Every structure is written in C-alpha cells, then in structure tokens.
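Structure request: TonB-dependent receptor, Dyadobacter pollutisoli.
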Amino acid sequence: MPESSIKKMIFKVMKISLIQLLTIIILTGIGYAHNGVAQDLLRKRINISVTNGSFKDVLRTIESQADITFSYQREVIPEERLTIICENLPLDAVFSQLLAPRQIGYEVLKNRKILLTRLKPTGIEAVPDQGRQPEKISERTLSGRVTDETGAGLPGVNIVMKGTVTGTSSDISGHYLLSLPDGLTGDTIVFSSIGYVNQEIRVGNQSQINVTMLGDTKALTEVVVVGYGTQKKSDLTGSVVRADIQAFRESPNVNLAQSLQGSVPGLNVGQVTAAGANPTISIRGRTTINGNQNVLLVVDGIIFTGSMSDLNPADIESVDVLKDPSSMAIYGAQAANGVILITTKGGQKTTKPVFSYTGSYTTQSPVNSLHLFDREGYIKKVMDQDWKNAYLAPDFTTPNPDYNIENYIADPPVREGLNNGTNFDWWDKTTNPGFITAHNLSVQGTSKDLSYFLSGGYTNQKGFVMNDKFKRITTRINVENKISKWFKVGVQSSGSFSDYSGVAPALGGIRLMAPLVTPRDEHGEFILNPIGTNVANPFLVADADDLDKRNSLFGNLYAGIDVPFVPGLTYRLNYGHNYSWDQHYSSNPYLNGASGTAYKINSTSYDWTLDHIVNYKTTFNKIHSLDITLVAGRRERNFEESNATGYNYNSLRLSYNDLSLATVQNISSSAWNESFLYQMARVNYELKYRYLLTATIRRDGFSGFAENKKTALFPSIGFGWVISEEEFLKPLDISMLKLRGSYARNGNLVDRYSSLARMNIYPAYVFGEGAPTEFGQQVATLANPNLSWETTTGFNFGLDFAVLKNRLAGSLDCYLTTTSDLIFDVNIPEVTGFSQITSNIGNIANRGIELMLNGKAIAGQNLKWNVSFNLAANRNRIVKLLGQDNNGDGVEDDLVASGLFIGQPIGAIYDYESGGIIQLSEEPPKGFFVGTHRIIDQNNDGFIDANDRVIRGRTEPAFNFGLLNEFQYKDFTFRFFLNSIQGGPNSYLGLNMPTAMGIGDNARRHNFWRELDYWTPANPNARYRSLDQGAATEYNYYGNRSFVRLQDVTISYSLGASMIQKLGLQGLKLFVSGKNLATWTKWQGWDPESGAGLSSTGMPVMKGFSVGLDVRF
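Returned structure:
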C-alpha cells in the first residue's frame, strides 16, 4: 500500500476516533453538568431535627447538612414555624415532603445552588403550626407486579412518579420496587410501555400496587421502525413485521440471525455449521440470477455493510423486517432483496443506573451422527468394491476363500496397517465436543436530559472439528443528550473484534482416511499422504500457524432539532461510518510439497453515510393527519487489500513474520471505490383514523453504471382501510380489522465497473534473448454502456385482525413481484474476441402467501399459555430469458447450460431419471454395469445422452412454518419453538450423492460412512448404487429435505419481588435452554436444512444445551 494511502487511512481512523471521543466527552460532560451533578446532589442523604423553627431555619439546616446554597425571593418562603425530623433520607425525598405541599418548586443550578420558586397556587393555604405534630420525613417502598392482559409478567415497563424523574422499571418477570417519600398519599405513579396504554394510579396509603397493562390493539399502537423514522403498526399500508427476539434471548445464539430463524414468515435464515459463521438470509424468494442477492441491513438508521456476526445479540432492542416493495421503496435500489432494520438499546427511565449481566455456558454436539467404517467395516467395504473377486459366483454372496485382500492394496502403509492390526479412529482424533461461553455486561439509564446504554460482551465458541474456533469481543456506547427543549445530540457506536484463528481440517479429507493408517510415522513426524493418494493428511492444515482477525468500528453521530415555533417540524442529521480491518496471516511447512508456504493478507474498508432528514407531522380539523419525510443523502464505500505470499522455505521458524526468506515471492494488491447519491420523499396521510395513504418516491444514483444510466426513480403507493372503525362493524366483537394494499418499483445494483471494459496486465513480451519479460495490456471484458438497473415491481395485499377481545390476532399477506432487466452474462459469437457480455435480460416472478397468528390460549391468574404461529409459501418462476427461438418450435429457448428454464424456478433440478438398479439377473446396457442405475431413455432413440434429462423437481420448499408455545406458571416459564420446512413430492430436494468409489487401488484406500446403504449382491434392494466402477452416465441422488425441528427450548425461573429485595437486586432469572434438540426427517446425512448429506463434503448442524443467568442490579 502506498505511503500516501496509509497516511490517508490513518488520518481517517484518527478523525473517526477523535470525533467519537469528543462527542462522547461533550455529551457526557454536558449531561452530567446539566443533570448528573443534580442527581448526585439529590441522592445525598441527610439527618435533620428542627423543633418549632422557622422555614428559614429548616433551609439553613439543610444547607449545612447537604453543603448546598438556597436562592429564593422573599415571597417564596412561607411565614410559618414547624417541627421536622428527617433520618438518613435522600435530599429529593426531603424536598418532596417539605416543598411540594407548600407549592414550592426547586431547580438545581451550578455550584451546588438550589433555586426555589413559587408554583401556581392550588388554593391550599399554609396551616399554622398550632398544635401540629412534628413532620417526620421518612421513606417507604412501593412494590408490585406489572402484567399484560393474560397475566404474564411484563419486563422493562417504566414506572415513574409523575412530574419527577424518580422512577424504576419492572424486572424480567414484571416485579418492581420503588422508593417514595413517606406521606405522599396524593402522588401519582405512571406506568408506561410501548404497545400498551399508559396507566396512572394514585398511591394513597398503598404499599403494593399490581398493574395490568392493556394492549391498545384497537389502534395497534406498537411502533415499528420503517426506515428514516417510525410508524404505528395501525398506520402501515405495507408488510412490516417485528421479530419476537425476546422469545429467544436465552437461546445459545452467537449470531443475531439465529434468533430470527423461522420466526418471521417470508424471512428465510439458513443454518450455521461452523463457529462464528453467518447464515444465509433471503426474503420472499430469489429475485435475481447474477445480480446482488444480499438482504439490506440497517442498524440504527445507517446502512450496515458488515456481517451479523459483528453484532452482539444482547445489545439489540428490536428487529423489523420490510418485506413488500412498498415498504422497501424508501431504500430504493439497495432494497430489492428486502430490508432488516436493527435497533440497538438505549437508556431506560430510571433515576439510578441499571446494571445487567447475562452469562451462559453451552455444550454442543452434532444433531445427527455419521460414523466412518472401523477396521472390520473398512475391510468389508474393500471386498464389496471388488465383489466380483471377493465373492463366489454365481450369486456372489459367499466369500472367496482364495481372495487375499492384501494383493489388492498396493500402498505399503495401508498394507502394513492391514497386517499389524491398526485401527486408527481418524474421526475421533479430529473432532471433539463443542462449547460456547457468553458474558454480557451493560449499564443503562435515563435522567432528565441524558440517556445512555453502555455494554461489553465476550463470546468464545469452539466448534465440532478441531481448530474450528471463534472469539468475539464487542463494545457499545449509545448516548443521547437533550441540550435544550429543541436540540439534542447523540452517538450510537459499537466495536467488534473477532478472532477466527486456526485452520480446521475439511471433513471430506477426514472421511477418506483409512483406519489402517496413522497420521504420524515412527519418528512422530506427520505423514504427508498417509493413504498414498493425493489426499493430504488432515492434521497438516490443523498444524498451521494461522492468524485470522476481523475487526470493525460502526457508529452514527446525530443531531436532532425540533424547529422552534413550528410544531411538528423536525430536522435530523446522521453521519454514519463503518470502518473494518482484517488480518489473515498463515504459515504451514507442509504445504507446497512440504517446502512450505506463508502469506500475509491485509484488507481495510471504510464506508460513510451522510443523511439529512426533515419530518413534519400535523393534525388538522381533528380528522386529518399528515406525516411528511424528506431525505437527501450520500454514501461512499472504499476498499483496499494487499497480499504477500512466499513459497519454498528452508525454515519457517519465523512463521509468516519474514516472507523475504522464501525463494519464490508473490505480491499483489487491489482497491475499489463506489458511491451512492439519493433523495427520498414520503407522505403518510390518515383520514378519520380509518383511511390511510402512503406515497413514496426515491431517486437513486450509483457510480457503477455508465453515464447515461447512473440514476433512476423508484415510486411506491399504499392504501389502508381500518374497517373496524366503521360504524357498521361497531356491534361486532372485532377489535381490529384492516385491509391494506400497495404497489412499488425497486431497483437492484450491478457489481461496480460492470458496465466498463476491464483491462488485464500480464507478462507478455520478451525483447531480445536474455531480456526481461515486459508487461502488456489487453481488454478482458467488453463495455456495455446500456447496462442498467434490475427493476422489481410488486403488489402486496394484506389483512390485519384482532378478535375475541384481543385473544386472537394476526395478519395475512398475499404478494406478486416481477423482476425485469435481469443482469446476466450473455454468450456472444467468439468472432468478437470475447465469449460473453454483461447485459439486461428477461423476467423472474415470485408470488406467495404469508400468515401470522398470535393467540392467548389460557389467560389465568397463575397459568398462561401463549401461542404464535407463522406460515409462508413462495413460488418462483422464470418468465422470460433471452427471447430466442433458435429451433423454431414457437417456444422460447431455455438456457440449459446455465440451468435456467422458462416456467421453472431458479434452482430447478434438470437431470436423469432412473429405472432402478441393474441386478445380477439383468443384462446391462452398453456402458453400464450390474449395481449401477439403468438411466431412462426419455426420447427412445436408443442412446443415453444429455437429451434424456428432464425436470425432476426444485430446490425451493413448498412452504415453511414456525410454532412458538409459551407456558407461564407463577414465576416459571417454559417455552419451545418448532421450525419446519416442507416440500411436496418434487420440491425442496437436495443433492445427496455418494459417488462411485471405483475398483482401482486408490479408491480401495478411501474410507466411507457406514450409514451408506449401498448395493451388493447380498443387498440388492439398497437405496444407493454399488461402490465399484462408475457407469458411462451416472444417476444423481436427490433427497427430500423436509423436516420438523425442535429448534429452541427454554425453562426459566424468575425470583419473586421479596427475594429480590432481600438480595438487593432488581431482577434475577435462571434458565436452561436447548438448541436443535430433535429433528424429524427422512433426509439421510448430516442435516436437511443445511443440505449436507452423504457426499464427502458438508458439516453437521450442532445441537446445544445451555445454563445461564440474567441479573439486574
């Protein structure tokens, strides 16, 4: 990397760090200067005893005890005498008892000064102290439990004394404790939580108040994030779903995406099979062939280009999924594949900081176990491969007494192991039980002007295969300070530092190792090729000195203005950045023919985003509501990578730290840049709380297109009708009934530089004998100035409902989307000098249906049972490709070589069909053998060739569903979640092909799974073909991957309020949980969801058992 680039990058990092540091210092300093000092003062405990003294005497005593100074005008102080006794009480409690009844307000100023002011009179006059008893100020505790309508405890409910900042929040099971000044019987406590109606209750003489929060489902007041703002769910016209991540808090999920798996209809999240891995994510089917297929991630309003493994699940407050084109239109060309909006945690309304710790330990093992042949099974496998010689004719089921297996194994180490009884378990020595340890500590709180959330997390995961490791440290600082009534600033920042160091051996290589050989020789040195083939010893890669670290800093600095004198008008400025740097260093003396290889790869990426957001909300004539959002922004991405590799070392004692010792050295580097420019306008209009309109238009610009195609417009419109607000439905017991529909057009991007002609530089010329090679240039790809955006248009129709007094609620969505101008590499005549050009072609359609149901089956006082169910089905279809009809049959041609067929989904299976396995009694066709499949001659031309292939099925499922059940009995909670993907007779198929091993010497040395049901003369009805020689045309095995999985199980116990109070805590929960505990399927192999079968590749999905605790103090 040039020195100038290094300086620029260092400057950027320093600038980012400095801005963050200064912002945090300013926010924290301002907040505590404005509020933190005040809180410290008001928490100071004092002792006062004044008998028949004046009010000024009491104030002077307080000044002396608390080291403060009062400032007031003469008329503020009442002319009365009083007796007051105060024992070890905080100052704010004293003020509440002393000042509030006398209509005196107070404000904490600088330099420990308290300003006293006269409040608006209430008609209560000061009472002379003749015969009055001494005022004894003391504290009392108000306790209770907050529940929902079913009686289930509600965590995180804000509980605040009205008009003050004195408050707390409910714990994990809904319990709370609140300290109040004694004697304030007229005070009001406010209970508030998103999605519930606020409850205001006068304290009176009560010491315990239990509150039932009523869900305002009539208006569906749950607020969801919709991009560049929030909306009430009742006002949505598109398909936006908030994931229930709370239900999976105790599951051992290293990656946030694992908490979304199966819980949102239309959101498809794949399985992970390696430590720290990222699952695949898609929404509502595949909308492109070669274009960008990534779901857009947005964290705290900023597009996030990192991976979900960079996020700590414990830091996440909510996850909202935008599924239909109308909802996604606000992000235009970057949202064609769906949007996931992630909101991190902020402060809670508590006068004191709330500390939380969550820790868990998880053990892991494969969901399904496969086993390699041991010595005895391996010898039988070799004989079955050579069954024509190892067994006697004519039925070949009786062993041949003259057969000597040693004569058929040429490799000396394998023969030696055969003779000396070696039975080495390669599987056992390269695999081990996995585990996950997770620790998360956070502090959060909110005072009058300052809110904050600070956290740190540590995760350590060890996978099933040796050296499959993942460690992650995360930090988060979310701070917001209200500078004035109309101006606030804040920062939402996080750091992720991941370590993937170590190279895990491939299971395919382990599977091939015969049990007759060992990994080391008699001198203890590793054997390069233990079985004598080109399959390397799996321990060689595991012995590498490998460093693989991936680090990132992500943040958003923002400022918000509530424009004075214009109610409802706000402005927000977001500056987001995402800086990451990866280091992958490795050395291995066994590679490159045991001459050694070492390399260093360094890469950095830096993205920044600048958004200007203006919002105006107003209501007029009591029936019209208007919400207008305007956005203008710019985003830029930069990437650099350098790679230095050395081959052939005399010694690798310095590992990768001195690549100059290599006799062959290779250096390469790369860099790229891309930028986005966009403007967006969105209007939400509501009439009489029942007629809804949402209109959006976005203009996108992307540097990756040619000059005449850099920008595009993407509009959307949505309508909603809240039928339950109509008079004719009032008599019916329907809490909510809403119809909605939307239409939109979105875009999709091409890879940067795709429209340009690309040049290759290569060593091309030698001028004169002995002269050095000179470099030349050549055009590698053709330019296409007409290459344009992929465009997705779509309709979505939905129904939201709640009936039976909100005991049953849900939604139903139907959709149809079409993507046109697909980005594809089209074959062109080679006379041009090129084989392909990137162009826009054809159409793809997706249609589907999604259902969500939430029910309260039992809503007793002690026993509750809540059920959530979701179902989704999607059908993908290729509508058009090149539009060519080369054979003149009047039907558009398929692109067979690319596996694309008109009227079929992407991923259609086009292959041969089998007429069964050829048996001993049958005459094999030419090119086929007994034990192989008889391929069906589809066109009856007497030959088996590519023309005999047919559509056998598809890889997409018919439908999938999820079922969550939660039972609560007092403070115990039991929760389990079933996840399922189902395919019909010809859907959700996966390639599950154990190939022929052959009869050659090399093939005999390879091991295999003993679960493989392969053909032999003694096993003629086997599922799979014989292991010996292959046929001229092989039949590929496909299996139905349908399954039902017990994905998550949790049992938890939350301590009651009395015990929590004795322990001095705010909440304590103990839990045990399980992950992927059972799977019901007919799939043979590792796992149906990951598609890992009986072939040599693939990794098992893990099941886990966890224990943990969640404590707040």
